[in-house]
Amino acid sequence: MPIKLFFILTLIMGCCTAQSGPPEAQKWLDTEFTDSTLSKAQQLKEMDWFINAAKPYQDITIRVVSERIDTHWYEANVLTKAFTDITGIKVVHEITGEDDVVKKIKTQMDLGYNIYDMYINDSDLIGTHYRSGKVVALSDFMKGEGKDVTLPTLDIKDFIGTSFTTGPDGKLYQLPDQQFANLYWYRHDWFSRPNLKKKFKSIYGYELDVPVNWSAYEDIAEFFSVHVKKIDGVEVYGHMDYGKMDPSLGWRFSDAWLSMAGAGDVGIPNGLPVDEWGIRVEDCHPVGASVSRGGALNGPAAVYSLRKFSDWLGKYAPPDARSMNFSEAGAWPGKGKIAQQIFWYTAFTAALTDPKLPVTDKDGKPKWRMAPSPRGPYWQKGMKLGYQDAGSWTMLSSTPLKRRKAAWLYAQFVVSKTVSLKKMLVGLTPIRESDINSQKMTDVAHKYGGLIEFYRSPARKAWTPTGTNVPDYPALADLWWKNAALAANNKMTAKQAMDKMAKEMDERLQKVADVGQARCQPKLNTPKKEEYWLSQPGSPKAKLANEKPQGKTQSYEDSLKAWH
Predict the structure, then answer these.
(1) What does pLDDT average to over the chain?
(2) Entry pTM
(3) 147 has a pLDDT exceeding 50
(4) Which residue segments constitute the domains of the chain, with CATH numbers given?
């Protein structure tokens, strides 16, 4: 009997130990990772795998770097500690500006010397990474050298952004860590006021509602800035943007202003053969950005889009908007003075849910909504309609294998199903289908003004990052802000600025070709008369006789249906 009792007690204790799991993992699951699409037992099993996989890397301190947004602050301040407590691997997760991340990864690629063990780098560089031969294809790594450190429950098919991080060869080069989109943002409470709706219709002849096209957006901007001016004693503006000659101005255009106007070709995730940067690709080789080479960067649609940017900034935005950068302008919608913004970064969603702000009601619910971006007159069905950022884990071949493996464990930890739902609730930058469709997100969707509805719809596939047509993002990206600022600040006409930029883009493409890439490097077309290319089907597109068709709006409810 005592022997039987001993074995029974042993079995019970073994069972309880298995249920409770390793103490550090259990502590984090009980306190921080209480929201997950996994059961507690599944979470413990996932953490147990990390503990065992990490044993050979206890002597390593890995270094990673990412841009400065709430999601990455959470990773740097909370998830690094959780990972170290659970696995024993130490992590230095550096936070810096997006432009600096690009410079850092380019430096390591150019020098071939290990600076960081992994990067959370925008998928905008997918064309660079695919062509360079210096970025590890993760799909190969997971099956080969990194098989022993690849999480069995990683579930690549659950990630919503892998089409953005896959090269033309079908290989996965980056793993999404966070995603946010540029969507239309507006004050739903103001748009719903009967007196404002009546006044708008009397002036413009149609309903004050969510704009479907740029004509309606422009009318609404004029209405609030010129005809309304003040609401409840507060001066208001019908538009918000920024125009400072600063690298962040480039993001407004590369991320992706021309696509909304309709400059590129039909195609998801990016137009082919001409993308939203106006670069034409033939047989995977970039052949030019200027119209004379078959590109669209200085075509009528691109010129129109830059002209509208400058006009609206001067006429309908706050007077100081021209001197603001991304960070300064980002706070303005929360001040309660802006009626709408044509594309607003959903990374700001969490910041605009603060109950102390004038843009939330007494219950903390948003007075604002986000909706599909309005489209310009050159836009055609089947084109991308806006930009989606996909900050993604990127591994360079110059990083020693042991360090790569340790860093890959950390990268997988912060996107694992144990962690990802809580991270989404903190930063509102979803990466997993399972998190988006979870009951938890259904319960909180009303707080976020349409964000969850957008990510649950097929429309999220039409908001895409920079694609594979761009052969060397770091070498080309600065041309956007340096030239767009000339028109935005009235130092050149839109046509002059885009002609200058297209010429410089072609020159840079040639330099990229001269330096050489591992595959698919630029091969520029011989210039032809612009009329030749403008008369061909698709992009570049000939100038429209009427660039301001009748304004069109739809209800918020119908705009959500349009996402489907």
Answers:
(1) 93
(2) 0.91
(3) yes
(4) 25-174+392-448+455-462 (3.40.190.10)
